[in-house]
Amino acid sequence: MDDIESAQREKMSTLGELAAVLAHEIKNPMNSIIINIETLRSCIAELAKDIPDTHTAEKANRYLTVIEEEMKRLGKVITGFLDLAAPHEQTKAKINFNSLIKSLMEFMRLELRQKGVKIRLDLNEHLPDIVGSSDQVRQALINLIINATQAMPDGGQISISTNFDAKKIFINVSDTGSGIDTSIMDQIFSPYFTTKEKGSGLGLAIVRRIVREHGGYVDVKSEPKEGTEFSLVFPRSMEGI
Predict the structure, then answer these.
(1) Closest among 204, 127, 138 to 168, alpha carbons compared
(2) CA 52, CA 43: separation in Å to the nearest integer?
(3) How does pLDDT run across 70-93, given as a tens digit for each residue?
(4) How many CA atoms lie within 13 Å of 60's alpha carbon, on the beta-carbon side?
(5) Of 107, 90, 93, 231, nearest to 170 (Cα)?
(6) Which residues contact 58 (CB under 8 A, 6 or more apart)?
(7) What percent of the chain has a predicted confidence (pLDDT) above 70?
(8) Contacts of 116 (CB under 8 A, 6+ apart)
(9) Residue 143 and residue 137: Cα distance in Å, rounded?
(10) Would you state the pLDDT for residue 196?
């Protein structure tokens, strides 16, 4: 078993190195393209001063906006792949999940309110701390909240709760959205699997990777048209290490 795990770690390390090189080689020309888009916009604005046909200039700017948005989307896909294949080493320290969640909600509250999403918190005040990476756990929660928001295009409610028992610590994130079809439940954590038109399919894969790196696992319950609940389950063996 140790030999298998060692081989898997070596394989992931090699993949991570390849991913880093690939991301670097792709991102450099991407950044150049985005910079040149701004230059083209300036050129179009100058030309428009001497050309009465503003329709053509507006049309050109729309095309540039499409290109820019697609380049940014590609950048997010590359970043997500890099995070999945070659996660950065993170400084580990004591984390209080309740404080982390409250801070994150302050950061996201305005954006969620604008999308018609209400937040309900039910945090166990006696929740013990664990040792881990607060940045990574924060990213996992952001991914879940983004997923929940996208499942509620007309608004709804996201509920976040924390709890614990003798062996585990739980963070539960639930929504009142469209739910997940049972036919795809086994695929939702697979990298690049998505049902969204412009989704990267990496959000949940990264969530699972982060929780696993903390010695835990992710559980999910969902009913079509009734919402979804994700549970991030961490071992209390990480407590106070």
Answers:
(1) 127
(2) 15
(3) 787 777 767 666 666 655 566 788
(4) 16
(5) 231
(6) none
(7) 76
(8) 152, 154, 155, 156
(9) 10
(10) 67
